[in-house]
Structures are given as C-alpha cells and as structure tokens.
Amino acid sequence: MATDAEFAPPQPWPALTFEERPWEIEDGHVSRTQRRKHAGPYEAAVVPRIATLDPPLPASLLAESEEAAREAARFDEHVGATFGTSAAGLSEIGPMSAILLRTESASSSQIENLTAGARQIALAELGEHANVNARLVRGNVHAMEAALRLSESIDQGSILAMHLALLGDSQPQRAGRWRDQQVWIGGSDAGPHRADFVPPHHEHVESAIADLVDFANRDDLPAVAQVAITHAQFETIHPFSDGNGRTGRALVHAMFAHRGLSKRITVPVSSGLLVNTGSYFEALGAYRRGDVAPIVERFNAATIFAVGAGRRLVDELKHVRVSFNDRVKARSDASAWNVADLLIAQPVINSAYIQSSLGISDVAALRAIETLEKGGVLVQPASAKRNRVWQSPEILSVLDDFAERIRRVRG
C-alpha cells in the first residue's frame, strides 16, 4: 500500500540564507568615503545542503532533460560513426575529440569575456607566441582535459586538480587551492557591503563542496538536470579566488562523462550558454532564490543547441578533411596523411609538433609538410617564416565560422 509520503508534493528548493560577518578595511589607501560605505559588518551567503534533496521540477522539464541527455549521447555516437579510422590507419576520433574540447574551452572562456581566434589558440597550444587571452584559453583546455581524465571519480581532489590545470601557469599561488578569504562579485574593491553577490565565508567552503560532491555522485536524477543544479550550486559556493566559472563548466563535462553522456567527445555546452549569457546569469540568480527550474531549462536548451552546432562543425571538418584526399599526392602509407588527420585538432603546426605526435624524424616531418604544401593543405604565413610554422586556412576558417555563427545567434 502506498504511503502518504509517496504522494506528497516535492519540497520547495531552499533559498540562500545569510549570516552577518565583521569587516575591517586594512588598506590605508581607501578614501574616507569608501571607509564610510564599507564600515561595520556585512552579510555573506549561507548555502543550503542539497545532497539528499530531490529537485521540485515539473514532469515536462524532467522529460526535456531526458531528451537533452539522449541528444548528447546520440552526438557522441554520430562523431564515432563520422570519424573512424583513416586510410593511413590513424584514429580520426582523437583529433576530432580534441578540437571539440578546445571549442568548448573557447566558448567557456568567452562567457568570461576572454575571446581568442582559432589561430591564436592553436599557436598557444603549440607553445608559440600567442596573445594573453589565447594563453588563458589554453589553461581552460587543460582544465577540461583534467575534468575528463578524472571523471570516474568526482570528488574534492578532482575539482582541485581541474583548477590547478586551469590556473597553474598564470596564477600558481592560487591554483588548486580553496580560497582562504572572503570574495564578492560586483561592487567595490574596498569591501563586500554593496556587492551584487557575496558567496559563503571561506570557512564554509570545504563542507559545502563535500555536500556538493555527494549530490553530484547520485545516480537517481535525470543527468542534465543534475548537472545544471550541481553547476549552479558550485557557482554559488564560489570556492576559488578566481576561475570559478571556467572550473564550474569543466565540472559539467566531468559529470557528462561520469553519467555516460559523452564517452568519446566533448559536447560544447558552453556554446549554448554563450548564445544567451543574460538568461544564464539570471538563472543562477533564480537558483539562489530557491527556484531550480530556470537553470535546468537553460542547460537543457544549451545542450540541445550544442548538439546541433557540434554536428554541423563535425560535418564541415569531415568535408574539409575528405577534400585533402583529392589534392594530396602521396603513397597510402606516407606520413602526410597522418599529419592531415592531426590538423583537425591542431590546425597550426611545426616540425617539432609532428615529430612528437607521430614519433618520426625531423626530415620525415618536413617531407610531410612539403607534401601538404604542394597540395594546398598547408601554407606558411609570411609572419611565421622565422619560426617555421604552417597552418591549414580551411580548418581555421571552419573554426572561426563556428564562433561567428554563435555571435550572430547572440545578436
């Protein structure tokens, strides 16, 4: 016989509460006006514990989450079917998986207003001179790689490892460490009193993350809804001094892999969030007020958008790669074919990269480059003569067009 509890409506999701904390301005360079505005105690958020809670979502939204999860899994299968093994025997799924991951990293970084073109990002991955934003995107690529590598075990250690991969080069003193001070979003550097949002005091971070990890490891919730709520809770805890958004979106992909939605590739979910960052940030605000539906709606839509955009990107890259076969004149076992496959993931290359990737000599690497140059696959930009760098204009164009399409949708 069913009990009354089985028919009880779901409990509302708890909103943030706040606690008063003392504040003293230590910086002697702050003006009297700023001292007056930031004198006395402030209020910091207290996040509810969610590990055992069931999100109060309507059946239609849960069904939409299930459909988004199926679309993500179908995309993973589509890439596997589209990119199998090349004529030269090199697995093509590896390069395609790498470029999807880099595309996701670039979109995630752009949400933080860190924009870089495909060529600059490829140069940064190559270790060549690149602009600051491209180097920061490279850090995000490393965080995503760590997220996928550690997806079998989502815990405090894996989250710290993602953050270390993200900021290890640019901010080594902060990377891979929970914050040890109060932070706030918006307002003034002088203090948190007039901030847009004040996350929990740092003494609560580790216990809040432990609760978050318990929620993230449940297997009784629709996957995309669970990912969305985990992400919103993570951003609310704001456990790091910097890099919370990018680490939080790397965690999304660790969970996608953990739940089996993406076994071989990265679904570029951030491209779907990027098309409407306003509603994404509004949904995070609604979550903090106790309404989980908007963030779940946003992730459902972002996942479905990302699958459509990702399919088009995969198909366009496949078309470019196939076109190389008609233009390159080489034996079937020539290294040039393996280099052509590598260009999908790394459309800017040098001899050292090819030697390292394929385990061949400098002479063999340069011979492969020359073969691809003759076929019009690679060109050497005039600005790169000294550094001996070559690039695939067609693949770079596909990647930049992908970014431009997202910008047009945003407009």
Automatic annotation (TrEMBL):
Alphabetical list of InterPro entries matching this protein: Fido (IPR003812), Fido-like_dom_sf (IPR036597), Fido_containing (IPR040198)
Binding-site residues for ATP, renumbered to this chain: D242, G243, N244, G245, R246, T247, G248, R249
Active site per the UniProt annotation: H238
Originating organism: Aeromicrobium flavum
Keywords: ATP-binding, Nucleotide-binding
Domain (Fido) ranges: 154-301
Pfam families: Fic
Keyword presence, Transmembrane: no
One GO MF term attached to the UniProt entry: ATP binding
Protein name: Fic family protein
